[in-house]
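Record minuted for completeness.

…
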Amino acid sequence: MAVYKRGYHRYQGPTNSHWNRFMVLPRFAWQRVFQQRLVVLLMVVAMVWPLLSAIFIYSSNHSDLLKSASKEFQKFIQVNGNFFLVFMYVQSVFAVLLAAMTGPGLIAPDLANNALPLYFSRPLSRLDYALARLATLSGLLSLVTVVPGLLLLGMQVGIAGFDWLYSNWRLGVGLVVGFALWILLVSLVAIASSAYARMKAVSGGLVLAFFFILSGLSVMINNIFRVTWGNGISPLWISTRIWYALFNVDPRPGPGVAASLAVLFSIMLLLGIVIERKLRPVEVVA
C-alpha cells in the first residue's frame, strides 16, 4: 500500500495504567536526586538526631540504669509529647534544608527549557504533573520525618508495651498528622519557588528565605510592638502551634490553633495558585 493511502489510525496496542504513567516522574526524579552526594550526605546527617532519640528512649525505659538519678531528672526523660515535639522540630529543619536542595531541580529545568509541552502531549495532565512533583518531594521528605518518627514510636511501643500506646495514642496521631502538614507545606513552598524563579539557585534561596526570614521577622515584630500575634507570620511557629495541640501540650503565647490552621491553609492555597498559574505549556506575554 502506498504511503499516501495510509490514513491516521488510533493506537490500539496495550497501554499502561494511569498509576504507572503517574509514577514515571517520581521514579526517575528519585534516581536523579540520590545521585547527588550532598543530598545523600544531608540525609545521613539528618539521621543523627533520630539515633540519639532512640538512645534516649532506651535509657528512659530502663529504670535500673537511672536508679541514682533524681526524681526530677527521671521525670524529665519521659517519652511524652514534649519529647516528640523536640524531635519534630529538629527534623523539620532538616526537611527544609533538603527541600531547598532538591525542590528547585524538579520544575525549574522543565520551565527554563520549555519542556512542559512535551509532558502534556503525553497522557499526562497539569494536575498529574503537579501531583507527581509533589509526591516526589513528599516521599523524599518523609524519609527524614515520618519514617524515623514511626520507627521511634514503634521502638517505644516494643519496649513499653501496647498499654503505653493505648494511653498515649495521641502521640502517634500527632506525629503522623503534624509531619503530614509540614511535608505538604514545605513541598508546596519548594515547588512554587521552583516554578516562580525558574533558576535552581534562586529557588533554593526562596525556600530558605520563606521559612527562616519570616521566622526572624516574627520575632522582630514581637519585640518591637511587645505583642505575640507576630508569631502568626512564621510558618514554623504556626506549624509547631498545631503540633502542641495535637500532642496536648501547653502552648506558647501567641495565636490559637484555629488561627494557626487558618493561616496555614491560606498559605497553602496561595502557593497552589502560584503553581497553577506557572505550570502552563504556553505562556502569553503582552
The chain has one domain: 22-62+69-278. The mean pLDDT is 88. The radius of gyration is 23 Å.
